[in-house]
TrEMBL record:
Domain ATP-grasp per the UniProt entry, residue ranges: 114-311
GO molecular function ontology, one term from the record: ligase activity
PANTHER family the UniProt entry points to: D-ALANINE--D-ALANINE LIGASE (PTHR23132), D-ALANINE--D-ALANINE LIGASE B (PTHR23132:SF23)
The keyword Ligase is annotated on this UniProt entry: yes
Classification lineage: Bacteria, Pseudomonadati, Spirochaetota, Spirochaetia, Leptospirales
Pfam families: Dala_Dala_lig_C (PF07478)
Matching InterPro entries: ATP-grasp, ATP_grasp_subdomain_1, Dala_Dala_lig_C
Family annotation (Gene3D superfamilies): ATP-grasp fold, A domain, ATP-grasp fold, B domain
Keywords tagged on the record: ATP-binding, Ligase, Nucleotide-binding
UniProt-recorded name of the protein: D-alanine--D-alanine ligase
Top-level lineage group: Bacteria
SUPFAM superfamilies: Glutathione synthetase ATP-binding domain-like
UniProt record similarity statement: Belongs to the D-alanine--D-alanine ligase family.
Signal peptide (residue range): none
Length: 331
């Protein structure tokens, strides 16, 4: 056996779709488990926080370099929720897939991510952070409002399009009761695009981009729902636009110093792309997640994607300085 992979995951619960919308389905976890086993690894699926931490703490110190945790834990509400596993693994000197805790925490905050990337020349529309129901609306309508720290279109619907001051006064207080911070942007009327970046610092590769098509004019939580998945990818992106998006995507990965994989979303206005958000914990379903579909469009298989992501996690563990403290103290 090559080693042991822990699939640390939250599993989607149809009884609590709003809280667990970002979580992977049981079918996806099963597919990942069998695929990784076929690659020559032992696999353990763990979804309880106490169980995950107990297992990690009890891995013999000399064996930890042969274990790796696939970070599929999304949690809810906390701004640190996507960083639980990376921080724990780094502290215990256990390899993990994906980006560090610092990258996970930053990218979950759409406002701070946009502030940083805009300073490096990544095109973004204007944006504002709203924390108070009495916040004066920007002058130029239409606007679009969404939770600042959620993914999978949670809290997003057609009613989030703000056309007037009256709309603002009705919608903002309602959203603030559920989400502490809101991101407000001008409404971009063009098509949405997505692109992936695979690799660690110094070896990034951008996938081909694709348009994300869906019913209506808003990529809502109903579209993103695992129970009614109706989006589709259109890979007929012009060479000029594709080159621009790949350039921006690689620049974003370099600025963030991401690891393993990220997915980046853009939207067009007057045929120009503007950054929407960066997702450092994208889905890995072979059926409904866009990153594996983007990867496969590059001519590579789903097993190759999972194998490459595991290899990148081990490489990060071997070479990145962020593990030095834990290795010195634990090994």
């Amino acid at each position: 056996m090559k080693g042991t992979v822990i699939l640390a995951c939250d599993i989607y619960d149809p009884n609590t779709p709003e809280l667990s919308q970002e979580w992977e389905s049981e079918e996806t976890i099963q597919k990942m488990e069998t695929t990784i086993q076929a690659l020559g690894y032992e696999v353990a699926v763990l979804s309880n926080p106490t169980e995950i931490t107990s297992v990690l703490c009890n891995i013999p110190i000399g064996d930890r370099s042969r274990w790796i945790v696939w970070n599929l834990v999304e949690g809810y509400h906390s701004p640190n929720r996507e960083a639980y596993i990376p921080a724990l693994c780094e502290y215990l000197a256990v390899p993990h897939t994906g980006s560090s805790a610092s990258v996970q925490t930053l990218t979950l905050d759409k406002y701070k991510t946009k502030l940083l990337l805009k300073s490096f020349g990544i095109p973004t529309a204007d944006f504002w952070l709203v924390k108070d129901k009495n916040h004066t609306p920007p002058e130029n309508f239409p606007l679009f409002v969404k939770p600042n720290g959620e993914g999978s279109s949670i809290g997003i619907g057609e009613e989030n399009l703000i056309q007037t001051t009256s709309d603002w006064e009705k919608r903002i207080p309602t959203l603030l009761k559920k989400y502490n911070h809101l991101l407000v942007e001008p409404y971009l009327s063009g098509r949405e695009l997505t692109i992936g970046v695979i690799g660690n610092k110094g070896s990034y590769m951008a996938t081909v981009p694709a348009f994300v098509d869906y019913p209506g004019f808003v990529y809502s939580d109903l579209v993103k729902s695992k129970e009614s998945f109706v989006e589709s990818l259109d890979f007929l992106v012009s060479k000029e636009l594709s080159n621009s998006l790949q350039t921006y995507a690689l620049q974003i990965a370099n600025v963030l110093e991401s690891s393993g994989y990220i997915r980046i979303d853009f939207k067009l206005e007057n045929d120009l792309p503007y950054l929407l958000e960066v997702n450092a914990t994208p889905g890995f379903s072979s059926v409904y997640s866009t990153l594996p579909l983007l990867w496969e469009k590059n001519g590579k298989s789903y097993p190759e994607l999972l194998n490459h992501c595991l290899e990148l996690g081990f490489l990060e563990y071997q070479h990145h300085h962020r593990y030095k403290y834990a290795k010195d103290r634990n090994l």
